[in-house]
């Protein structure tokens, strides 16, 4: 399986470069031969899903291609010699996050116009912790819900106790009062995405799109697994989830709903987020 993934990765890079090699060479050999003759910036996105394969591909290409520079995005370092890691935090909620949200809101036909709406947008961005994909999901809701309603829904899911200081190597701790949330880069991103997907699912359920809703609930559950399912149980957000899931289940039937939910729960995390952020996505993955 690892070898097959490595060959597929090399073939994907070859396709992106527009190579059509008709010899018996392996795809990586063909890629190296082409790149070695010119300066190239290779960008690989979401490498955390194929860390060993990406590491091997990059090492082979760097050794064979003196003019090559590589830029990757990943939730973990690849461990390549000479690698420089730049940690990208969430956006500053008072500035960049609001700017991104306003741009996306205008793109869906719901511009943020006056000071009151600016304050609502800033509050929403703070609640979503400046996570760009979560902001995009929230902005998509403005097609069907006003800014005030979207902000209220987000607020209901984020009324959480203050997190204790982070301890290296630990993402959660338990004490006699229950489970507390401890933030990390991964959990902060997952938290915003989980909430955004859940709001999206509820909206689809209300609009009579039960298949979309079931998939979005399953996608959200992936991210709640990272954060901790205890965060899903706040009394304000639980009724919204219960109504949305009940509506989708009653339209689809328990069996089909469960199958769709499970499919999204087990699907590639980036794939389901990309699906959810696509305008008018298909009702399947």
Automatic annotation (TrEMBL):
The lineage of its organism: Bacteria, Bacillati, Actinomycetota, Actinomycetes, Kitasatosporales. This is NB-ARC domain-containing protein. InterPro entries: P-loop_NTPase (IPR027417). Residues 164-175 have a biased composition (Basic residues). Coiled coil: none annotated. Residues 152-179 are annotated as: Disordered. It comes from the Bacteria.
